[in-house]
Amino acid sequence: MSIIVKQLTRRFSPGGSPAVSDVSFQAPAGAITSLLGPSGAGKSTLLRLICGLEVPDVGRVLIDGLDCTALPVQKRNVGVVFQSYALFRHMTVRENIAFGLNVRRLPRDEVEARVDEMLRLVQLEALGSRHPGQLSGGQRQRVAFARALAIRPRVLLLDEPFGALDTRVREELREWLHELHERTGLTTLLVTHDQQEALEISQHVVVMSEGRVAQAGSPEDIYDRPASPFVASFIGGASVLRGHVLEGRAALGSLALSVPAAAREGEAVHAFVRPHDIKLARSVSAAGAGERTPFMGRVERFKPVGGFVKVLLRMPSGDEVTVQVPRSEFEALGVVEGDAVRADVLTASVFVGDYAI
Amino acid sequence: MFAPSIHLPRRKTRTLEGSPWVRWTLVTVALGFLAVFLVVPLVAVFSFAFQKGWEAYLTAIAEPEARSAILLTLMAAVIAVPLNLVFGLAAAWLLARFRFRGRALLLTLIDLPFSVSPVIAGLIFVLLFGRQGWLGPLLFEHDIHVIFAVPGIVLATVFITLPFVVREVLPVMQTQGSDEEEAALTLGASGWRTFLRITLPKVKWGVLYGVILCNARAMGEFGAVSVVSGHVRGVTTTLPLHAEILYNEYDFAGAFAVASLLTLLALVTLVLKKYVEWRSEAS
Amino acid sequence: MAPRSRRHVLPGFRLSLGLTWAYVGLLVLIPLSSLFLKTFSLTWPQFWETVTAPRALAAYKLSFSASLAAALANVVFGLLVAWVLVRYRFPGRSLVESLVDLPFALPTAVAGLTLTTLFSSKGWYGQYLEAWGLKVAYTSVGVAVALTFIGLPFVVRTVQPVLEDIDVDVEEAAATLGATPWQTFTRVLFPAIVPALLSGFTLAFARALGEYGSVVFISGNMPLRTEIVPLLIVTKLEQYDYAGATAIAVVMLLASFLLLLAVNLLQRWSHRRLEARSRA
């Protein structure tokens, strides 16, 4: 049961900039798809358009091949987990889970059976008669899942479901969601601003920026082959290096990378380099024959973080670059603040034109 | 034809609010009810007051008995409001900042004038100070008149309006906490100075709100004052009592002329109340 | 807050304690105790005879039934007005918002005079209602009308903040689970505002029981027919029957006390039900 979104646009005030603008993508059946982007990118609005809480100005929403753009939210049969959980405070856990079934006027014994099944699924069998106010954050979250799943939804939509929890509970629940998905196989759409979360639990990622789709693909695609400077800078904590086109290649210190064919000789390029894609060396010897001039950076600061050392380099161009070096390697280098080091870029994403934020 | 539309607040989505038809029906019924019960009576007061023209109106509110009723009403308010203001501040400070034995009882007693019928409020003072009352013979001996005289009216008014300032200031003080007061004390400020410079400015809108409500009730009170007044024309009649007397004498225009003054008071109260709410939200 | 055993850090404890108790003692405690002392001047049979006299019973019945009718009307219309004020934006909304408090601000005598004139047989409303055969002024219906006016703000002002506090998310969640707007209202919103409705109802009811100024004009004050309890007290006072007035007053006080107790228990119950946190 895939979700297909075609050219969706939603503008909140006439003449204002749209919250969602001409968005098309496909969430494959049975997979977890993440909608990833900074806050204000239009992810939540997109989710609300898909479940029917917002009506699009233009565009269509297809769930399982069926056009449900005109279908009211009540009839769409989608499970939604809200960021705030939106549990009914005056109802017990059981009553919360049974709500969608009672509304559908299912026979009582069927409702009871389904609620029991859901309580088992989210491992809250013992807490059925509690009120939401008596539960911890993680427990409330699981009640919200159970309530959404009880109606046997065609798809599951999650709006920042772990946003309000502390880190440890977040990680546990992430693992739990993974298992839950394995078991239910439900097509799931997850809205998140946390790239770690998106890359870790989804099979498909849609990166959004300013109401538009910036890139859609597998987590590896997004990480290794960012399609735009925005995606490259948003994912992976990359630093920017500037260079220019030399002999048809982008020259970044000792590294030459291929550039799009349209690039002219001498044109400015910029590259996004991830902290672990730079190798540091003590060598200050002159460049060998045929070798391009390597980058020489000065160590501004360094700070051990767990098994790694974070080194901040100042390049001759003035750019600041963050490099992550395994601890043992850094100790072997034996550099201190102020030392010059040779920085070899292993790989980078290159874009033509000067970098501007 | 121009028809004003009923908008939904921005945060709402249209899917959940029912059809426009439902919306229109609900708003129409609600506004119709309010028109019948609030707006028309409001218009009626002024319409009845002016039914014999401007001159009759001015005569009705300028005659000596009306003037003395206005004076007595103002006097009762001028005594009751400051007394209850001082008491209200002290009691709110006490109840917001300290836990002590008898606190719950004190709260209940402070609320009592709200929950007791105004008639009973009058009655208790009659029982104390009336000729058959506990202190009646003593007062009679010294020719002091409380019941059927001005002091009784003032007493009943003070009683009826006692909770207003406390009830408005207490929640404000409670939500604001006492961090700033404690900071002032560590900086060497005296207790008085702390109260005047820190606490009072923090709760000023709550105080003002309480004073406005207290004043409106003080000027408009009928039941309690009626019981202790004795209805001596021109001597122990406040404005509401004066309106009653005129009405019972079938001087409807006169009664409503007096009533219109009280209605103006109510409208001014509502405007001030709105203003205070607006200012306290802004700050 | 500082525990009782420790000395208070904040200044003014003794001063404010002394001032408050003195004021409350003089103005509330002593006058009110005079009421109970007066009651004890009656023997039990005398007391019982006074409070169960046919005229008193008729007055209880009228006060109770008219207050109940008014409080119920306030529940229905108060909920409607609160709903409309919170949920919809329409021209004149902020004016309506302020006007709702009019019955609190308007002296009750003015309300009584005006409603009586409007509903009398030649009044703006009365002439049409009487053509339909409905007499309002000088009947028990009139008493209920005046009490409805007086109690209007209570339900609106208790329900409104609760309605405002309900998260939109909760309604949206109900919709995604398949609930129609009506189901969302009856199953999700209404249960959430029931405690507020109940306390609004009780406040309006208690206020109506004690109300005097607005009713005395419209009721016509016929013993056994349109005489409310507070009026009976005043009548007895005017006949210098202090003991009789006091006995009736004590019965009324007990009734309002029970009502207030009910409000408090209700609020505590709903508070506990919704705000409970697990101790685990």
By DSSP (H or I, 4+ residues per run), the number of helices of chain B equals: 14
Query: What is the fourth-level CATH superfamily of chain C?
Result: MetI-like
Shape of chain B: globular
Instruction: Classify the fold: give the CATH topology of chain B.
Output: MetI-like fold
**What's the alpha carbon Rg of chain C, rounded to whole Å?**
23 Å
Q: Tally the helices of chain C: what do you get?
A: 13
Largest sheet of chain C: none
Average of pLDDT of chain C:
87
- Listing every helix as H and every strand as E from the N terminus to the C terminus, the arrangement of chain C reads HHHHHHHHHHHHH
Percent in strands of chain C:
under 5%
CATH topology of chain C: MetI-like fold
The CATH first-level class of chain C comes to Mainly Alpha
The termini of chain B sit apart by 42 Å
GO molecular function (chain C): ABC-type sulfate transporter activity
Organism (chain C): Myxococcus llanfairpwllgwyngyllgogerychwyrndrobwllllantysiliogogogochensis
Domain ABC transmembrane type-1 (chain C): 60-263
Subunit structure (chain C): The complex is composed of two ATP-binding proteins (CysA), two transmembrane proteins (CysT and CysW) and a solute-binding protein (CysP).
Describe the structure in your own words.
Chain A is an alpha+beta fold and 357 residues long. Chain A has nine helices and 20 strands. Chain A has a six-stranded mixed β-sheet with strand order 6-7-8-3-9-10, sandwiched between helices. In chain A, strands 13-12-11-14-20 form a five-stranded antiparallel β-sheet. Chain B has a single domain, classed as MetI-like fold. Chain B has 14 helices and no strands. In chain B, helix 3 packs parallel to helix 8 and helix 7 packs antiparallel against helix 12. By secondary structure, chain C is mainly alpha-helical. Chain C has one domain: MetI-like fold. In chain C, helix 3 runs parallel beside helix 8 and helix 9 packs across helix 10.
Topology of this structure?
The complex is a heterotrimer of chains A (357), B (283) and C (280).
Chain A: E1 3-10, E2 20-27, E3 32-36, H1 43-51, E4 58-63, E5 66-67, E6 78-81, H2 93-103, H3 108-121, H4 137-150, E7 155-159, H5 167-184, E8 187-192, H6 195-201, E9 204-209, E10 212-217, H7 219-224, H8 229-234, E11 239-246, E12 249-252, E13 255-258, E14 268-273, E15 278-281, E16 295-305, E17 308-314, E18 320-326, H9 327-333, E19 340-345, E20 349-352
Parallel strand pairs in A: 3-8, 3-9, 6-7, 7-8
Antiparallel strand pairs in A: 1-2, 1-4, 4-5, 9-10, 11-12, 11-14, 12-13, 14-20, 15-19, 16-17, 16-19, 17-18
Helix pairs in contact in A: 2-3, 2-4, 3-4
Chain B: H1 20-49, H2 53-62, H3 64-97, H4 103-115, H5 118-129, H6 136-141, H7 150-160, H8 163-176, H9 179-186, H10 191-202, H11 204-220, H12 223-229, H13 239-248, H14 252-282
Chain C: H1 13-40, H2 44-51, H3 54-87, H4 93-99, H5 102-105, H6 108-119, H7 126-131, H8 140-165, H9 168-176, H10 181-210, H11 213-218, H12 229-238, H13 242-275
Helix pairs in contact in C: 1-13, 3-8, 3-10, 6-8, 8-10, 9-10, 10-13, 12-13
